[in-house]
Amino acid sequence: MNRILIAEDEAPIANLLLAALQEEYSCVWASDGAKAADLLEAENFDLVLLDIMLPKINGYELLDYCKSLDVPVIFLTAKGELEDRVKGLRLGAEDYITKPFQIMELMARVETVLRRCGKTGRVLQLPPDIEIDTASHVVYKLGEPVALTAKEYDLLLLFVQNKNIALYRDRIYERVWGEEFMGDTRTVDLHIQRMRKKLGLENRLVAVYKVGYRLEA
Ligand code: CA
Predict the structure, then answer these.
(1) How many CB atoms neighbour CB 148 within 10 A?
(2) Which of 9, 15, 76, 133 has the greatest number of C-beta atoms within 10 Å?
(3) Which residues, 6+ apart, have CB-to-CB distance to 88 below 8 Å?
(4) From ligand 1's centre to the CA of 117, what distance in Å?
(5) What CA–CA distances, in Å, run from 74 to 1, 87, 111, 188, 189?
């Protein structure tokens, strides 16, 4: 699932965006520019919906940061701010959406930008040897399918979508098992050990002391 950062200080607009996008995308909301920059530094996103007039760090400054991280940006502009739109596109935003916006138009533009920027590919890569076909849920190592259980597949996907980020055991459990973590770390450890053995990831999916695990890529 593609991950979208929504950088927007007006809660009603952010809530509208979240409501529209959450069915199809994994969304995170930042209510000011500094929070958005922190999230961009800590996590991987496929797209940023970026308000121009943001507290602390404005949208133009954040655009530069997004470009340095190779994350595409759609600007959110208030109606009539034509100069902002032109400036935004000239500075390297992929597109812009005028507030107030139609949900259908928003969804179409998001999808177009993700596709144009090569973010919608149904095959996720974990170089140099692993590919995940997210449509068929088949994982390949050096072109050969590897039989994973449903939980092992979900775990792999979670790590590939959060490369180089240390994930806490409780968060891993809640994301993959879909229920609240009750403190049984064995379950997480066992499934991860089996999955990384099947895929030969012992040296790359590493335990992080007192935290959980991190996939190094
Ligand atoms: Ca604003």
Answers:
(1) 19
(2) 76
(3) 52, 59, 60, 63, 75, 77, 96
(4) 26
(5) 18, 13, 11, 37, 39
> Nearest 5 degrees, angle CA 89-CA 73-CA 120?
125
Residue with tokens 């790359």: 204
For ligand 1, the distance from its centroid to the CA atom of residue 25, given in whole angstroms, is: 22
Residue 213 is which amino acid?
Y
Distance (angstroms) between ligand 1 centre and the Cα of 174 equals: 33
> Mean pLDDT for each consecutive 10-residue tract of the chain (217 residues)?
94 94 92 97 92 93 90 84 71 85 90 83 84 85 93 93 91 85 85 97 95 93
Strands (E), the chain: 3-7, 26-30, 47-51, 73-78, 95-99, 123-126, 130-133, 138-141, 144-146, 167-168, 205-208, 212-215
Peptide bond connecting 100 to the previous residue in cis, omega within 30 degrees of 0: yes
Say whether 151 sits in a helix, a strand or coil: helix
Residue type, 109: R
Tell me if residue 84 falls in helix, strand or coil.
Answer: helix
Q: What is the pLDDT of residue 34?
A: 97
Output the CA 176–ligand 1 centroid distance in Å: 35
